[in-house]
Amino acid sequence: MQYLNPFRIFDISYQNTVDPATVLRLHTEVTTQLSAYEREDTVYIRGNKMKKWQAEAVLADWLDDRTRAFHRKVLEIPFLYSFLEYGHLNYFGNHEEKHDLWNQDIEFAKFVFPYFADQYSNALLQAIKVQDKKELTTLLAAPPPKQTEYAAIYYNSVSEHISETISNLVELKQQQSLHYMSEREILSHLPDKTIELYNLLPEYFAEMRNNIASEIHSLAVVLNNNHGRDDGAEAVLRQGLKLKLDQSLRQALEQLLKQHKITTQIPTWVLVGGGVILLLFLIKFIENALSN
Which residues contact 105 (CB under 8 A, 6 or more apart)? Predict the structure, then answer.
């Protein structure tokens, strides 16, 4: 839900009193301009690019005395405005001051919240996509307003992104090319930097981290059993153990890694020697059977 401030769009100072004549003039000007376009068409309102439906929403907010007053108040709080419209993180510099903002005017908070939650969700996702640890840490340093109540909104975009990571791991298991992939190619589906950022996320994401670990466990089994890739199996298990996990899942990965290491650490000469002894035994057995 993108925030667009009518005062900025219409290039009108929020510090001046808006008289009815100005409101009517803008209504006539914008309505006339928009009449030639369809809902999804791109339009330019005083140099600002947007969809027609967005322009209609901005105009509706402008015509309503209540919402126009809320948009004016947003501009009176620069750190809030810069976050809502541009995603600048100076809002998160002083948590106590920002916390008071949401308690001073309940109606204003209700108006701003949908825009704030959407921008916060997008900012979290962007920080993870560009792997910006500093920005992600800044966003997580102070909990957003009503964090528990609206966690699904705040974390929606990142949840979808992590779900894609899990889906990619599921698809990876089904690829026959696993037999030839290098360890580097396999681990590129869950690199160190991504794990580091996922570990910074709050407890809300604990289950999703565990789901990633479950897929890592399954991938290691497939690599070992279906492709004979001991190296790849060990590599992905070690990678999975870098995640912040529930104790039970961590133990499951550690146990599989331990079993894998016991198997792979049997010296080759022991395996070869055992095979030779078995072969000689079978030959001797056949000779005895024939002689009888």
Answer: 73
Read off the tokens for 247: 């104790």
What DSSP line would sit under the chain, residue for residue?
-----HHHHTT--TTS---HHHHHHHHHHHHHHHTTS-TT-EEEETTEEEEHHHHHHHHHHHHSHHHHHHHHHHHTSHHHHHHHHH--GGGGG-HHHHHHHHHH-HHHHHHHHHHHHHHHHHHHHHHHHTT-HHHHHHHHHSPPTTTTTTHHHHTHHHHHHHHHHHHHHHHHHT-GGGGT--HHHHHTTS-HHHHHHHHHS-GGGHHHHHHHHHHHHHHHHHHHHHH--HHHHHHHHHHHTTS---HHHHHHHHHHHHHHHHHHTS-HHHHHHHHHHHHHHHHHHHHHHHH-
Query: Is residue 219 pLDDT above 60, yes or no?
Result: yes
Structural domain count of the chain: 2
pLDDT per residue as tens digits for the range 81-133? 999 999 998 888 765 555 567 777 889 988 998 999 999 999 999 999 999 99
Q: With a cut of 80, say whether residue 287 has pLDDT above it.
A: no
Tell me the two tokens of residue 92: 């998160």
Q: Is the pLDDT of residue 63 over 90?
A: yes
- Do the domain assignments include residue 208? yes
Residue range of the domain that includes 237: 156-268
Residue 141 lies in a domain: no
The whole-angstrom separation of Cα 190 and Cα 213 is 11
Same-domain status, 125 and 177: no
Say which CATH number the domain at 183 has: 1.20.58
- The pLDDT of residue 148 is 81
Query: Which pTM was predicted?
Result: 0.79
pLDDT surpassing 50 at residue 230: yes
Residues 12 and 130 in one domain: yes
Query: Does residue 139 form part of some domain?
Result: no
